## 1
Amino acid sequence: MLDGFLGTRATLMLDVVFLAMFVVLPVLAVSIYLARVRKNYLWHKRIQIALGIVLAVAVAAFEADMRLHGWTHLAEPSPYYDAQTGGTVFTVLWIHLAVAVTTAVLWVVVIVRALRNFPSPPAPAEHSRWHARWAWAATWGMVLTAVTGWIFYYLAFVAS
Ligand code: HEM
């Protein structure tokens, strides 16, 4: 397993995903600004699809790393980890996973429905109301996914 570069107990892949979320959220904010304020729906569409692909690749690589190498041995020095019960680390991980899985489903649905229901090139349409509601849910889901992921990272791989 490759060591990370942040100087914590985490693996390279964990460090990459941890840092990537600091890039994903501002890019998401810019993309929403482009749609809402600048009315540049084409770049909003391109950025959202690119983000969706980047996130799918990151999740696949991250899952592979965790399944192949495991992570619990890296969390052992943490006071929040308990080998018997899992401790707070496990509780936070479950919350994170629940939020992340829900958000991933939302992203797929929002992107697929947008591609099907907005004209090309994209512009406001009948689909706008549905999109405004669920795209905001997908956006806040991503924010929560990042925040719960960062908390998990700290509890499992930084705290000692
Ligand atoms: C998960 C992916 C996406 C997210 C999170 C997202 C997010 C958003 C948000 C938050 C808004 C502003 C809604 C408002 O007015 O309050 C918006 C507007 C818009 N988005 Fe997306 N979007 C996504 C994908 C797409 C895609 C793939 C397209 C094009 C095919 C698209 C086209 C539009 C359009 C045309 C608007 C303007 C709607 C209007 O003001 O009438 N979006 N999006």
## 2
Amino acid sequence: MKVSRNALLARIRASLARNPVTVLTGPRQSGKTTLARVLLAEDSPNYFDLEDPISLARLDEPRTSLERLEGLVVIDEVQRRPELFPVLRVLADRAGQPAHFLILGSASGELMRQSSETLAGRIERIEIGGFTLAELGANAAETLWHRGGLPRAYLAGSERDSIAWRKQFVQTLLERDFPQWGQRVSATALLRFWTMVAHYHGRIWNAATPASALGVAPATVRRYLDLLSDALMVRQLQPWHANLRKRQVKSPKVYVRDSGLLHQLLGIDTDRARLCHPLLGASWEGFVIEQTLATEPHDEAWFWATHQGAELDLLLRRGDQLLGVECKRADAPRMTPSIRIALEDLGLQRLAVIYPGAKRYPLGESAEAVPLATLAEPGSLFT
Ligand SMILES: Nc1ncnc2c1ncn2[C@@H]1O[C@H](COP(=O)(O)OP(=O)(O)O)[C@@H](O)[C@H]1O
Ligand SMILES: [Mg+2]
């Protein structure tokens, strides 16, 4: 089965039309190459896959080879040859722009830093992840939550195949991809750390506890966390600090971005295990947050919490508006003191309480209970 990703394709096309270089980053196996091949056939001479020795050989003299090409040029797995960025800069600045470049990278922080520094002002970056509710439709919600959105995990023929694939994915990332990206980290240590992050999923992160549990320095823990964040596997959600007299939380929250990988790391491999798991609520919350961030337009995102116990799962800034999101895995969420405080203290325009039910209904003047299914229609969370 082929899932069409028309919104992403439209964004890529629009970016290609207005920039000499477009960078598409996303985790390995998230569907980057598949998207690029919709735009340019694999056998086109303008397609370079830097994991393919033939393509690599064709780029021995990159400037000479690339200079001759016209129209769309795709360079896949660009993190293999970061020295291409200065060449792309020269090519991007040619009069009349004979070629537009789409470069794909299995995200790494270094890649992003190099490309944005070298190509500042000539580049637009589009980040992709796994499938979203908007791409799959509202009926996919349960399966998408259980299996996660990586295409092969989501589309696997059986639950067992999906789990086996996710397990292999984690292993390959740790044992092959990180070393290939030049990261010298023991795969075993990183797996233990990632599993620990899974247990902290949706909680405030304090590096001291995992450091002492793993017997490493807090600086090492920070490095591990940054590695997994750069690989788009972990999200660090930063706290919002409002100008209030209240004491507010200053540490980030951590989430395993893909719910299927979260379940794999936690060893949850049956419906029953998931439904009894203490992190069920946190898992659902993380899933809703990722889906919201993937489909609701926004400029910045945080969470908010005070030491008195008021909190907001997700705070979005869209232009000059502040919008709140709460995730409640409940049949019929009601107005709570915490929601009232968030609305008031943060001056939110709107607040949506996303829940698994079917009906959209008001909770007060600026707050609404909104079905999860609404996220299948991008941009309709706040009305
Ligand atoms: N839209 C899609 N529909 C169905 N399968 C997909 C889709 N996108 C990717 N896949 C499958 O997922 C796997 C990884 O896709 P790929 O494009 O190679 O990812 P990446 O280039 O990000 O590593 C492949 O087996 C591919 O066939
Ligand atoms: Mg690829």
